[in-house]
Amino acid sequence: xxxxxxxxxxxKRFGDVTALDDVTLAIGGPRLVMILGPNxxxxxxxxxxxxxxxxxxxxxxxxFGGAPSPYPRRRVGVVLQKELSLDRISxxxxxxxxxxxxxxxxxxxxxxxxxxxxxxxxxxxxRISGGEAQRLFIAAAxxxxxxxxxxxxxxxxxDPQSKADLxxxxxxxxxxxxxxxxxxxxxxxxxxxxxxxxxxxxRVKAHGTREEIVADRGGVPAAFFHHCAVRIEQGxxxx
Length: 239
Hints:
Elements: E1 2-14, E2 17-29, E3 32-36, H1 43-50, E4 58-63, E5 76-79, H2 91-101, H3 107-114, H4 130-141, E6 148-152, H5 160-173, E7 178-183, H6 186-192, E8 195-200, E9 203-209, H7 210-216, H8 221-234
Helix pairs in contact: 2-3, 3-4
């Protein structure tokens, strides 16, 4: 499996606050990678750096085996935790905008079809459901067929059925590219992930495939993930 992204001793400080502390990872693909941790764990900060939206205080990042300079925008797709929302823009106009940004011929129609929103093209973006919005955002972010897709808590605030439907789609996307998403939902990580990174207080406390992590903790999946859930909810370090 070819290396897609890696970090070495990655650290990010905001004044006296250390958001990331010596994060070292190497992840291959294609696969679905879950960055799991409580609010304030540093998940979004890590994604911001990997997406080229922020600079680390120290440490290194590699994408596709090399330094991301210049940043390989054509090979990466991004869905932020709070996506672009313009007043009175329609679903179709949003799709047209991103098709133009990525210079994809027929991209508007491709985005609408992928998001299953062809019949809703004239509906205002602020009038659609959370599940529809996430389908649209993700379809737009991968209209140019990127090798790496970053998603910041894409299933947060979705109802159970929408979350399950989106999870199934993400599994499909991850057969052809590396999908890296953040979540604080342990059950979701357990069901969907090929590779898990437990991030607590800016530090990596465990990482690997689900099987590797379970084996390292005695081979008892339910007990291990329950243990991590308690630790994450309390916001303390995973031992």
